[in-house]
Every structure is written in C-alpha cells, then in structure tokens.
Amino acid sequence: MPETAVVLLVEDQTAYASDFADACEDVTVRGVDTAAEARDRIEDEPVDCVVANYELPDDDGVSLLESVRETHPDLPFVLLTAAGSERVASEAVAANVTDYLPASTVDDPNVLRDRIMAAVESQPPEDDRIQALTTAFPDVAFLLDEDGYYRELLVGPNTAALTVDDPAELAGTNLHDQFPDGMADRFLDHIHATLASGGVETMEYPVELDDGEHWFEARTTPLGRAVEGKEMVVWVARDVTDRRERERRLERQHDELETLNQINKVIQDVVHGLVQAATREEIEQMVCDRLVASGLYELAWTDENEMNRQGLSPRARAGEIDGYLDKLVDLGNAIGGDPATRSMETGEIQVVQNVAESTLLTGAFREEALDRDIESGISIPLSYGNTVYGSLSLVSTRAGVFSERAQSAFEILGGTIGFAINAAKNRKLLLSDTAVELELRVTDSGGVLLDIAERLNCTCHLQGLVPAPEGHLLHYVRVADASSRRVTEAMTDADPVEECRLISDEDDGDCVLEVVMSASTVKRLVEAGAVVQSATATSGEVRLLAEVPQEADVRAIVDTFQSAYAESELVGKRTVDRPIQTAHEFRQSLTDPLTDRQEMVLRTAYFAGYYDWPRGSTAEEIAESLDIASATLHYHLRKAQDELLGAVFD
Fold this sequence. Notes:
The structure is a single chain. By secondary structure, the protein is of the alpha+beta class. The protein folds into 5 domains: 5-136, 3-Layer(aba) Sandwich (Rossmann fold); 140-239, Beta-Lactamase (2-Layer Sandwich), CATH 3.30.450; 252-429, GAF domain (Beta-Lactamase, 2-Layer Sandwich); 432-578, no CATH class; 581-650, Orthogonal Bundle (Arc Repressor Mutant, subunit A). Helix content is 41%, strand content 26%. The strands form 4 sheets. An 8-stranded antiparallel sheet has the order 19-20-18-17-21-22-16-23. A 5-stranded parallel sheet has the order 2-1-3-4-5, with helices on both faces. Strand 19 (497-505) and strand 20 (511-517) form a beta hairpin. Helix 11 (324-331) packs antiparallel against helix 13, helix 20 packs across helix 22 (630-649) and helix 21 crosses helix 22 (630-649). The chain is elongated, with a radius of gyration of 42 Å. It starts with a strand and ends with a helix.
C-alpha cells in the first residue's frame, strides 16, 4: 500500500474535504466543487485517486467518470452517492468505476481512506468491482442475461435466503431451472421489459423457502453493456415479506372498520325502529328484516327461551340460504347444544368465526352449513336484567363480519331489544282494560325478605319500587315487629343486599328501609314482564301479587321466575277488570307534564320519607341514592312540584 496519496475530492455541499484531510495525515486532499473544475485539475496536476459525489452542481458523478475514463482509463475513481441506487450502480459499473460507496458508509474518515488506498494500490478485477458495488444493495442481486441465464451472484451485507442451498450453483443455470414454468416466464418477460424501457422496472413475487413463503420485490435495470453478445440486467431482490404483512394487516383493519361502520349504521337503524314497534312480534320481525336488508347477513331469526326446548323454533325470520333454517328446524333434538341454545343458557354471545374449525357446532350443524358455503354466524341473547327472553341469530357466507368490536355492538343491541320486549309487555298491560292477576307463593330460603322474616319472626312488606341508575331497583320495605337495629344489621349482612339505609323508625315499632338488592323475588318478577302489586314475607313464605297483560304467556313468565326460585308455585290466576280510568291513568294525567328524571326524583323523595315529619331522608341522602348532586335534586323537585301544583290549581 502506498504511504501517501493525492486525492481529488469533488464535493460541494459539505466541509467533508477539510475534515477528511485533517483526519488522515497520509492523504493529501485537493477539494473542488464542480465537475468542470475536476476535469481541469486532473489535466493540470498529478492525482492518485478521484473521489466524487454523484450529485454535483454542474453535472453528475457518472458523467464525470465517463469523461475521466476517456483520457485516464486507469485512474482510480471512487463514486459516492447519498442512497443506494440500482440505476446509478449499473451506470457506474458500465463506466468502469473502481469503487462505489454509499455516503452513509464513509462517515468514519478511516473507512474512506482504506478504500482509497486499496484503489490506488491496484485496480481490482471485474468480479471484485461488481462485488464492491453490491455493498450499496440492501439484499441480494443477480446479473441475468436476456435469455434468463444467471451470470453473476452479487451478495450484499444483508443477503436474504436464496432458492438453492449453495448460491454458487446459480451461475450458468436458467430461470426455468429454478422456478415453475409460469413464474420463470413471468420473470423473463420482466427482463425483456426492463431492456426495452432502459430504466428501472419493479415487480413483486412469492418464493417458497425453508421457513415458509417469502415475498420479494425485484428492482431491475439494464447493465448498460453486453457480455458475450448478450444484454444484461441487474436484478436486485429485496425481501418485503414484513412490509406486505403490514400492508395486509392494514387492509384487514380497514376492511374491518368499514364493516364495523356498516354494522353500527344497521344497529342504529334497528334501534330507531324499536321505538315504533308495539309488540314483541313486531320488534323481532323488524330486527330480522333490517339486518338482512343491510346485505351483511343472508339469514336472521329469533328463538324463544323455553324451559323444555326441543331444538330450534324460530319466532321471526328473514332471508334464506338454500333452506338452511328449515333444515335446522327439522333436525330438532339432533342439533343439541347449538349456539342459539347456548347463548340463552349462558346469557353470553356465541360466535362462529369459521364453520369448518368451530367447536361450537355439532357434526350435523357443521355439515349443513358447509354444504351451503356458510362461513360464520353469531347468536345473541335478548335479555333484560336477569331475564333472557330469547336469542337473535345471524348467518353469513362471508368471514370477518363478527370481529370483537362488532360483538360489543351486538351485545348492546341484544340488551336494547330485551329492554324493548320488556317495555312492549308492560305497554300491553297499561293499555288493557283487563289484566291477569297472578299470585305466587315462594318458600326458597335464598330470598332476603323471607330469610329476615324467619330469622327475626317479623313481617316484611314492600311499600314501593323506584328504578335507579345502572338497572338497580330501590326497594322500600316496611318491617313490622322487629327492632330497626336488628333489621338493619340483618339486611346489611345478606349477600344479595348491595346497599341498605334506614329511612324511619316509627313509634308503633315499624321501620322503613331503602334497599338495593342484586337479586330478589320482586326484581325477578319485574324482569319476567310482570307488574308487582304487593309482596309480603312472613315466617315460612313470601306471597306476591302481580299483573300481566291478558295476552301474556303466563307459563313462560312463571317458568322464568321458577328458574331462579325453584321452591315457588303459582297458587292463583284470575282475570281482573280495570276501571275506565285506572289509578295509573289518573296518576299519569298528573305526571304527563313531568320529565322521566323529575318523576323519578319525586317518587324517590316520597318513598324515602322526604315529605314526612320528621323527615325520613335528607335531600343529601336521596341525592346520594340517585347518584346525583344535591343541587340537581332540588332543581328537579321544584320543577316537579310546580308542574303538579299547576295541574291541580289550573
């Protein structure tokens, strides 16, 4: 290696020349800014090596190289570029460049010094120059001729796996030796297109490697000179498997979001339709019709939650897939454990993302679905409180329509439909001039009021109910023949009791409590669709009186109640006439001007003893029960009282 070298550095945008000279004592650096200055300097004084940036103010580095080769064919010439470029690399090789370096590799001056000294010491042979060229390439590159034969393998620093165990075996083979005919023909067409265009061409293709399928991006450019009479291309193959997977993941997420937006629009449409439906039958048919009309699902149906379920028994249905639902109905008990049944038993959504792989389906169910190209399905429980009225099932011949976010939306829809069904049942009762009165006797030891009545030898009577936030019911219970202290302690200790507050302790020995329970006989009966008229617990039993609409399925209501309280029985059922103006209608004439919140606050204040003397509850205590601010409570009370007084005096 020579002890010193005179280097002509052609570079205009940085102070690299002076920094490089300071860092390397054995290199004499002469810096110029333009290609024209470089040509003049080479003619005027001796230079051991030229180092030029590709981008110059008046020309480019390859053009400078070509002009230098015309007069100084053996002068070492190192080309720098800001980023690896197949086109620039090919042009540089064709112009007989000595070395080719991306600028990022020479941030350390010693790296450039070593390459300069190696270039000055001797010109590397053709193969070494091509190998040096590939340091600019990200993965692996080949020289291929116009007939598809491998001429050279250019291995860069980040070479990906090849299709053969020994890369050296590629030289002299043809594309048809390495790939199936269809793919090899595609590659050969791409080579010809590159030679015809004279520029950079790209394509992507899959290759099966030892660790699975990889995708490569090919960037090809003409070499710029013939070898043994054959035109050549530089073929740079970059592994883009990770990038494609990211792109596919983004596409899937985009498709999922589009589907989710469609689902949300359909659900909003269904919810708006619930307001107009007057009966359960109308509700379920409207839901099925609109979901199928959306185009997302080919089939929808609802099922009844019955104690003695004998396979599918659709209440409402819409859409069709080659007689699929009728076939499931015919199967009857052979279905067993189907998603619809399981959703009603567990109260949870059941999802079949892939029919062929799902463990939720029996053999008969799966076979019928696969025969009709069904991909996915979902069964949603229709519930209100602890009562599951039935299920809604949807079937699709597409995959990916029941994502986790879609399931969350359907869970909300199931609860909304359950609420609408419950409201429809109550609406029937309110508008009817007759009703069915049910009397039930409960002896289960799990009931809170019954346990307290037996334990303290007292009587517990329900005075009133008020709906509270988050689906809770405020039970106002009058207890006779027991001390308020013992009653409060017993209530507080009971597992189903979430909150308990003493409202009044009266002189006659009775006390009134406000109780929130996670489960109670009263709450269960309300959730089953009945209006509770009274509930009294004595030692040994609880007696409940409730009204249901004339058209109600009494057996279903009783079954729902008995599923929670097995030791209960229906001891009375009778039709009762309702007055021309019921008590409810009278109250409604007074409360019509009130908002729902005003009526709720007023009812709570009344049952909580706010208007008693002395008061059973303070405004702060009532506000806390309703989870609102004290100022808000006073505002609603004043507005409600003003409306009621106006109805009386106006």
